[in-house]
Amino acid sequence: MNMFETATRCKFRFPFRGLVSVEDLWDLDVKYLDSIFKTLNAEAKESNEESLLATKSQEDEILNIKIEIVKYIVKVKLDEEAARLQARERKEKKQRIMEIVASKQDADLQNKSVEELQAMINDLE
Questions:
Q1: How far apart, in whole angstroms, are the C-alpha atoms of residue 50 and residue 53?
Q2: Residues with pLDDT less than 70, the chain
Q3: Which of 32-49 are b and which e, b meaning 16 or more Cβ less than 10 Å from the residue's Cβ?
């Protein structure tokens, strides 16, 4: 079963200023998600103490799913941030190139003779 389907069907809650739902995780900053991950990971380490009985309880499975959900959301948020940064860099680079093109066009106009400029003005009218 999909981990998000499991989370919503079982009404998972995550430790953050009380308890938050899966939907609320999407609104949190990655710093807060990291603190939730650390809390869940500490719980997982505590429950994974050595035991002669190698059976996993349902709580262990739920804890693992919660950890995977937090990891997934953090990855998505980091990927989205990287995409936003790339888009901003592309936009800034395009703007710089357009400014250079405009300055070269201005320089080209500066180098034209008065007669050529007058002819261009007449063509525009």
A1: 9
A2: 1, 49-56
A3: ebeebbeebeebeeeeee
